[in-house]
Give the backbone structure.
Amino acid sequence: MTLTLLFTLGEDIYGLEISAIQEIVEDPPLYYVPRAEGALVGAINFHSQVLAVIDLSALLGFPGEKRDHRWVVLTPQFKSLVLTVGSIHRIVNLDLSELQSSPSSAGVKVVRGVANLDEMTINLLDTNEVIELLNNQSI
């Protein structure tokens, strides 16, 4: 069993393994980044480090999504990026050995697989693929 943070993007429920998360921050001041475009919404000062803030909804094609006031800071292994999501729900235990394959969304493989929990379908996010997608978009 793996602890997983559940959140929404659009109408879908996504999961992110807790091991990829350094911290969840609430209402941090967002600083403007000149010429920032696409999914890059700005930067925050996180424990004296400047971290890029990525709108995960926009990156994955859910434009105009309202953002939760809590943001997810990824571990240094995942470039210490900050992700904004639609809304953060709760932490659950998922059995990753029972993941089912997931159809790719718009040709982008950012979902490792799909899990079912309490009549919910959870798309488990592949953090490495999200980083790769950001690299390909030159953000």
About this structure: The two ends are 34 Å apart (CA to CA). Helices lie at 56-59, 127-136.
